[in-house]
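Q: Sequence in, structure out?
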Amino acid sequence: MQVKQGVIVKKSGDKSVRVRVTERQAHPKYKKIYTVVKHFVAHDEANECGVNDAVTIQSCRPISKQKSWKVVDRTPAIVTE
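A: Exactly. Output:
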């Protein structure tokens, strides 16, 4: 099972969220550090996650055409005004 950490950028629908996962990698030849951003659609069974929440997602069986990840843990966003 793969586990990734990211931030929710969109509530895609009922029990679905779009998660942005940011990873830093080094180029194999030039050793320059660059950022790779990927988006995953994850299943949120409790339907409690909101935008800007930090979440941990885990791979699972395919739930729909695009969803093969599920939300395991979440940290609510801190809103300051």
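The chain has no helices and five strands.
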